[in-house]
Amino acid sequence: MKMRLSFPSSFNCAGVFHDQHGDKCSQHELEVQRTPCSPWSSGNMNKTHPQRNGDVATFGSTETFSGKRGCCHPCGARCHPCGARPGCTQRHLCISALALLVLAAAVASAVAALALLPRAPVNRLCTAPNNRTGFLCDDRVTCVPASWVCDRVSNCKNGEDEQEQLCGDLPHSLPGYLVFYCSNPRSWVYADQRCNGMNDCGDCSDESWSSAACPPCGQEWWSCISVHFEFCSCIPRRLCRDGIQHCLGWSDEFLCPA
Predict the structure, then answer these.
(1) Based on C-alpha coordinates, what's the Rg of the chain?
(2) Cys bridge to 143: 39, 60, 134, 177, which one at CB 3.0-4.6 A?
(3) Closest C-alpha to 69, from 26, 29, 40
(4) Taking a C-beta distance cutoff of 8 angstroms, is the pair 136, 125 a contact?
(5) Contact, 74 vs 37, CB < 8 A?
(6) Alpha-carbon distance 232 to 248, whole Å?
(7) What is the DSSP secondary-structure string of 75-90?
(8) How far is CA 180 from CA 67, 144, 171, 228, in A?
(9) CA–CA separation, 14 and 26 (whole Å)
(10) Are 188 and 177 within 8 A, CB to CB?
(11) Which residues on neighbouring strands pair with residue 238, listed in sequence order?
(12) How far apart are CA 146 and CA 188, in angstroms?
């Protein structure tokens, strides 16, 4: 047997209540069985003593009760009568915090993935003073001669000319434009040492070899076959007429203008 309880006007919770069988109750009514009704939890709840009038009970005086079995509980036996769930706020905060952590982890993973992507190589080829092949520093202004790269002296402001990535496995770690390979493939010189008048390869391949493609001796040089190891097909004019043979045939002493 069920009784229909009518709540006073002061009990004005919005929403529709449901009993344990799924039957809907109105805002101001609550259906109960003969067993004592109880609120959604073990907390106390005010009710009034019903004055039996048929199967409708009205409420007069008020007392507090709590029970272990419920017949009809607001919002499906899990919420406060007005729809507020205990612990809902804490649970929502936990869910929000978890979502933020997941989002932060995703962003961090994306940033890490971008960092691992291969970067386009920076073109650092430049022309150093005296028309020498050079290495461009990060400031995009300073041009370091090729032979100054990986010489254990930081010539760029940020030391990029001495970085391990650049100098870790010479000459293979160097950009191709900084290296000239001699006729002996096991020998190499820096690109700005090619065609500088000096025998840097040891066999003059950096000066007279076809791969070197050196221009004729410049104005400050005298063309001849050098008798000294340090020169190849040109000697500096400052050595002319110094009383010492530098050219095969002594042309540096008899023909070279003073």
Answers:
(1) 48
(2) 134
(3) 40
(4) yes
(5) no
(6) 11
(7) HHHTS-TTSPPTTHHH
(8) 94, 17, 10, 23
(9) 9
(10) no
(11) none
(12) 13
Do residues 194 and 147 make contact, with C-beta atoms less than 8 angstroms apart? no
| 185 prior amide bond cis, ω within 30 | no
Structure tokens at 191: 């690109």
Q: What is the pTM of this model?
A: 0.53
Pick the closest to residue 15 from 74, 67, 86 (CA basis). Answer: 74
Please report, in tens digits, the pLDDT of each residue of the chain (258 residues total).
444 444 444 444 444 444 444 444 444 444 444 444 444 443 444 444 444 444 444 444 433 334 444 444 444 444 444 444 555 566 777 788 888 888 888 888 877 766 665 554 579 999 999 999 999 999 999 999 999 999 999 999 999 999 999 999 999 999 999 999 999 989 999 999 999 999 999 999 999 999 999 999 989 999 999 999 999 999 999 999 999 999 999 999 999 987
Q: Which residue has the tokens 């971008």?
A: 114
CA distance 52 to 37: 16
